[in-house]
Amino acid sequence: MITTPKTTIDVSPEAPTTLKADWLVVGICADGALTGPAAAIDAATAGLLTRLRESGDITGKHLELVPVLSPTGLAATRLLVVGLGKPEAATRATIHDAAAAAARHITGKQVGTIAFVVPSPEHTLAAGVGLAQGCQGPGVRKTAPTRFAPERLLLLGGDAAALPRVLAEAQGLWLARELVNAPPCDLYPETFAVAAAESGRISGFDVEIWDESRLAAERMGSLLGVAQGSHRPARLALLRYNGNPGGPTLGLVGKGVTFDSGGLSLKPTDGMVDMKCDMAGAAAVLGGVQAIAAQKLKVNVLGILALVENMPSGNAVKLGDVLTARNGKTIEVLNTDAEGRLILADALCYASEQTGFLVNFATLTGACLVALGTETSGLMTNNDAWGEQILGAIRTAGERAWKLPMDASYDGLIKSKVADMRNTGGGRWGGAIAGGKFLEQFVGEAKWVHMDIAGPAWADSDTAALDAGGTGCMVRSIVEMALAFSM
Ligand code: BES
Ligand code: MN
Ligand code: ZN
User: Fold this and answer.
1) Relative to the CA of 267, which ligand 1 atom is closest?
2) Which of 92, 104, 341, 437 is catalytic?
3) pTM of the full predicted structure?
4) Which of 49, 84, 125, 321 is a plausible cystine mate for 27, CB 3.0–4.6 Å?
5) Whose CA is nearest to atom 16 of ligand 1?
6) Which residues, listed in sequence order, are joined to residue 451 by a DSSP beta bridge?
7) What's the CATH code, domain 8-159?
8) Per-residue pLDDT tens digits for 311-336
9) Cβ-based neighbour number of residue 209 at 10 Å
């Protein structure tokens, strides 16, 4: 049901001019002389790149794409020149996007081999994962598909030592995106749990699944309160990877609402239409843990996927109901559409009993989109040093987050007259922070970061580097977090 590209990825020391491929992709900077492989390609093609630069057809502007069909002097059938932008502005993110844009340009048709000239060996990871990103799109359920995974990606001049990480991150990204793109008729808590078990079996980590009776026995009343409106029973998936026996454990918790109708606080159609994406946090955790295990990183990770469907029905949780979470705290439900925090409450509670280092990922609030837009996640924490460490990992990975305040002046947002807290802020203001303040009640003494990924998890329309749909956001950051944690 969850199918990801079968594309193989390799590095190769072969010269770009003599390599046989359906497409040879080379990056060109916005200024400066042609150097290295670009100069070799220029020489082999009797100055083709120089001429195209002089005529203004190639500027090297970031993400510019100039295809050259049947280039003479090269063994490759086609050449694609992709702009890398100013050399001083070249980062992991800009190389990743350039490679992704090139792959997107090519993979609208079926091809065999795409060879990418890695600008320099330290960019192998960015180039490889970027290419992989551009080979996958949401159209796999069309009778006439719109994107075709190639047979082979070759990283020319790439660093062979980086290859295991490239493969692991590419596959983690593919898995996370495909999970988000999968329709809710196929992907619901039970099938998501099966996908997690399958991933664990292949990539080498343990997966334990708790069903509804176990969840009740574990006193997860807040999570079960959300699930009770749906015919689809809840699941909790526990992913355990121990690469550093005896060492500390990084706890990663994901919101996995496989469909968020809003429950009795029903969303209007416009707000509900993309709500199959509401499990993107859980998808990021699964993709990230898979990528960590596949590389055999020397780190311990506990991943927790909180999996429910949020539906209205005769059994659904009602406004005014009071739920009791695992830690005994009582919650007044004033809006059944604020369900993510209800399921995370119990999952965080359990996680905080297992480890003192937590990060959760959740498409939690529309308010975070209003505050930060579609490209930047909100970061909230109860420990500034831990928050900085996580933010640093996200930046290194080339992803974006911005810290929101969590001081005591926001405590009133979750005060309830009848229970220990209420699940909404009441008014419209500070909605993203209200979510953070609520979750904070369930992490005990653990150092904790809450990532609100409601914006970056889903792309409404295509961009140069990415097809619309699930983005796979935070998979690369989670690998980087694990690396920082292991040091
Ligand atoms: N899943 C939504 C948040 C969301 C909105 C994710 C848009 C991605 C894009 C969440 O469960 C939700 O409905 N939040 C409410 C909270 C409110 C009722 C306090 C919201 O944002 O309106
Ligand atoms: Mn909701
Ligand atoms: Zn939701």
Assistant:
1) 13
2) 341
3) 0.98
4) 84
5) 338
6) 361, 379
7) 3.40.220.10
8) 999 999 999 999 999 999 999 999 99
9) 18
